[in-house]
């Protein structure tokens, strides 16, 4: 094992602190996703001078100046964040000993306890080990005992990374680990909407780039709630788009064909009576996946339901009142009213649309009655007619 | 002796069947011939597989369980002995009542059933297997049963129940003896309500008419205020369809009411099943279980949740369908008023509303509305999202010619 305190870094590019601190000695640690030096990671191909990490800035330290935590607990069930915590912990140990072994065990297994004890005991050559224990909320008795043993003995050459899915289950063990100096990192799933947008903004900032709020919103709409996809999209954007800050146009250019091709985008186009757009969106969506027929029908139908509900409240009411009474989000009221105005002179067609929707739902689910068939051509035709309702 | 028994069509066990004289006569004869068979004498009226069909509520299951009781009772259905009392409640060891709780009855369940059916009777001469709702057998499940139904062990009797012969596989149909139940007459149902449940004459007459021969529904309408109110709400719909928003609102109200009723049925069942599951794994509120047992329980719980979900879908669908049948009866009455036909109205007490709607349209309009209701019922059965089917129906009830404005529908 290499000596603690010796940090194998590239001396040409960074000036490493000669001494490592314990986490408790600083107020905050700047951490990057992959556990490498914050300054280096964020740098593009800029001048080497700007890539010097000072290690400690007063009360704030770069992760490369702080010892890896003996026990880390990723607490929460957002897989991306959990993976990052685990990855960071492993990388930070590897800044001390690049040859550190990673041992992964499942906490619910009865045999895992022995594996943990084994991995935590010193080896002949003092090799470092990172033990990753997943799902300690349902730890088996043997794992529970092994983890408590680790917490008590704090072995020199082993580091422990646990994941806990969140909740109160297994709280006793969690508390014991924290008491023994375990650092708990919050990995709870992000709230939809603003919570996720804030996370994205930070993600962009970690590349030392900026994105306009519009651009973030477009990206979020296009990709959806899946954090991995979002993070992947951000990393693509920052590496491919040169303009800074990245604008909404850049995002929609980049994601043309993906951005907005959800059932709801098709529905919006249908009820805005933009038939050509609706048809194009449908074709695009079909090209990406052929399992979209049923959700598309449902999305178009729920669009119609919202329009009709808003129409039922009457034109005089304020947007907030309409939203409450019709049970639609306030920010959609304006759109829904616009859509209703495009149909109000043509109500019979709108009523016929309700009939067509139920028929289409039956058709895409394999047909109704004796004429039931699963002919894909027929399905396609039904969908195409459906999105052309407004023409 | 045997001659005398054959004529005894009024063994007490058959009293449960209302207005089914033909069916009762045939089943009683079969039961007595069954007894001959056990003594090695010929018994042509008895066979080993039966298919009982009849409209919902006509008493298919009642007929099946009464027949089963008559077979396992030493007195051919005295109605008094333990066998007669246990058989109808699925408590008799030689009578098995299979009631598919979910949407379909699958191949795995059918295989279990075949295995059980081959067991010998324990306390009587016959082992009776009753499959209620045989129309819910999937095609594979039906095929699994085929062989067992065609050549069961000598002491096994199969009784399948279904709404009509078209609802079961032709191959099953041809291996069974068919017995059709009739829709009981309004008078018979009303008399039953008065006799057995002590219902007031007028309410009994209303319930018998409104239920159109569905005995269980008639009982609910006669004894449950809530059921009567729900029915009134549903029959008010036709006069509330003014524009598109009101159509959509009525559709969502109807669905909401139906899901409320469905939840009232399924929630207690779900809760009881969950308690039972936990206690069968020894995990009552006090005891916590761990490890393998816990995983086994969790997987059983997942399985239970899946079955409960399909049952919920089925119950909801049944509730919506019942509402649609009420609407169907309402528009039938409208048509009768329009045609001035001398046929009794189902909703006689709503004559003013019926007349008003009758004046507002032509018989052709009403016919199209009736067809729209039938179409919506078919859509529900074909797994169309209920709210879509209902919205479409309401729009079509408001304007029965709406389809002519679209080039889109088939």
Describe this structure in words.
The complex is a heterodimer of chains A (391) and B (410). Chain A is built from 16 helices and 8 strands. With 391 residues, chain A is an alpha/beta fold. In chain A, the strands form 2 sheets. In chain A, strands 5-6-7-4-8 form a 5-stranded parallel beta sheet, with helices on both faces. Chain A has a 3-stranded mixed beta sheet with strand order 1-3-2, with no helix packed on it. Chain A is elongated and about 80 Å long. Chain B has 2 domains: 2-180, P-loop containing nucleotide triphosphate hydrolases (Rossmann fold), CATH 3.40.50.300; 244-409, no CATH class. Chain B has a 5-stranded parallel beta sheet, with helices on one face. Chain A binds chain B through residues 110, 140-141, 297-298, 301, 305, 308-309, 311-312, 347-352, 354-359, 361-362, 365-369, 371-372, 385-386, 389, and chain B through 243-249, 290-291, 375-376, 378-379, 382-385, 387-389, 391-396, 398-399, 402-403, 405-406, 408-410.
CATH superfamily of the largest domain in chain B: P-loop containing nucleotide triphosphate hydrolases
Number of domains of chain B: 2
Strand portion of chain B, in percent?
A: 5-15%
The CATH first-level class of the largest domain in chain A comes to Mainly Alpha
For the termini of chain A, the CA-CA separation is 74 Å
The tally of strands of chain B reads 5
CA(first)-CA(last) distance of chain B: 64 Å
Q: Shape of chain B from CA axes?
A: globular
Question: How would you classify the quaternary structure?
Answer: heterodimer
Q: Which bin fits the share of residues in helices of chain B?
A: 55-70%
Radius of gyration of chain B, whole Å:
24 Å
Q: Report the uncertain regions of chain A.
A: 1-18, 42-49
> Order of strands across the widest beta sheet of chain B?
2-3-4-1-5
